[in-house]
Predict the 3D structure of the following.
Amino acid sequence: IEVTFDIDANGILNVSAKDLGTGKEQKITITASSGLSEEQIKQMVNDAKEHAEEDKKQRDQIDTKNSAESLIYQTERQLKENGDKIPENIKTPIIDGIEKLKKAVEDNDTERMKEIMKEIEGNMHAFAQELYKNVNPQGGGAAGGGFDPNQFAEQMKNQAGAAGASGAGAPADDDVIDVESK
């Protein structure tokens, strides 16, 4: 049996069922018993236009609050996981910022949330710099302790060698790095 449903622009539902074995077909049309009049539709459209600015402001408040809560979670997680590797003079402004941001979220103060989030993000840049400086104290082969392609290639060789030792992957002395993507 093949069943098809079709809803048109007026909200009318057409349902048809066809028995593929016998070829018999049945159809039914379902209409709303109480549709909206043209005047009601126009009134709803006008109401939506009148409240568009309010809706935009409310959406901004909700988006800002969601971003703030996400930033609080992520920042607290970073502090929990890596806080012991960072000096107090870098952690303290971040912790203070989180507390201020929690208060702004509680007060639903959108503008204050935006200000504090920028402040925390700036402080988190210092946190990240310190964290990666501690991970690679020699500064690596790249300027500013950033990405070093030679070091990356060496790490990939070591991983390939470890995989080769277990019977999979390429030999450790091979300069080719195989990558699969989907």
About this structure: The CA atoms of residues 94 and 120 lie 6 Å apart. Confidence is low (pLDDT under 50) at residues 139-144, 163-171. The two ends are 38 Å apart (CA to CA). DSSP finds five helices and three strands in the chain.
